[in-house]
Design goal:
The chain is an alpha/beta fold. The chain has helices spanning 12-24, 73-77, 94-99, 102-106, 128-137, 169-178, and strands at 5-8, 31-34, 37-38, 43-48, 65-71, 85-88, 112-116, 141-146, 151-154, 162-166, 181-184, 187-190. The chain has a five-stranded mixed beta sheet.
Length: 191
């Protein structure tokens, strides 16, 4: 694997699991892990800590929370190379993460964003249609990907789970065509 990654996980117990997985898979030289949250500004936020993979920025009424340092993608990635791909899955806090990523979103080196939009933003008063508009305004278009056929299909809007937004469809198609396939079960998939 030639790709390098930055993995961001705010909840300490989940961060420990992330670090264990990085070590087990001997990926220390490929993955830089940060135990922070992301938002629109640098500061502190309260997070839930008992919901395992769906821990999230806590709302006023939630208890059993922890305080976590947060930063912006623009700040974190200012020292790093602009990524080709960003995956955002922050349980409804996507608007704030994107608010802290204006420079990264504008950089043409960013080719794709995979983002989970499933209505969770409503808990913070965010409209996911505004996320869609922000991505469109930055030159991205929504797509679905069929891994069995290795095909991208442009769609009108985001789905109910992960949506792939591409700025450079030809770049991504060429990467799909040139990637080797792996076998999972009885089916071949692109890496």
């Amino acid at each position: 694997i030639k790709a390098n990654s930055i993995a961001i996980e705010p909840v300490p117990s989940t961060f420990k699991n992330l670090m264990d997985n990085i070590l087990i898979n001997q990926m220390q030289d490929k993955v830089k892990a940060l135990n922070i949250g992301l938002g629109g500004n640098k500061g502190l936020l309260k997070f839930t800590q008992t919901f395992d993979t769906v821990n999230h920025v806590a709302t006023e009424n939630e208890t059993n929370t922890i305080e976590v340092d947060i930063n912006t993608l623009d700040t974190i990635l200012s020292e790093e190379q602009v990524p080709t791909l960003i995956k955002i899955d922050v349980e409804g806090f996507e608007t704030e993460v994107l608010n802290g990523a204006a420079k990264i979103l504008a950089d043409k080196k960013l080719k794709a964003i995979i983002i989970e939009l499933n209505g969770s933003g409503q808990r913070y008063g965010y409209d996911e249609n505004q996320i869609h508009k922000k991505l469109i305004d930055n030159g991205f278009k929504p797509f679905n990907y069929n891994p069995k056929l290795r095909q991208l299909k442009e769609v009108e809007s985001f789905g109910t789970h992960n949506t792939i937004y591409l700025r450079d469809k030809e770049f991504v198609i060429n990467r799909i065509k040139s990637s080797r396939q792996i076998k999972i079960g009885s089916t071949q998939h692109a890496v």
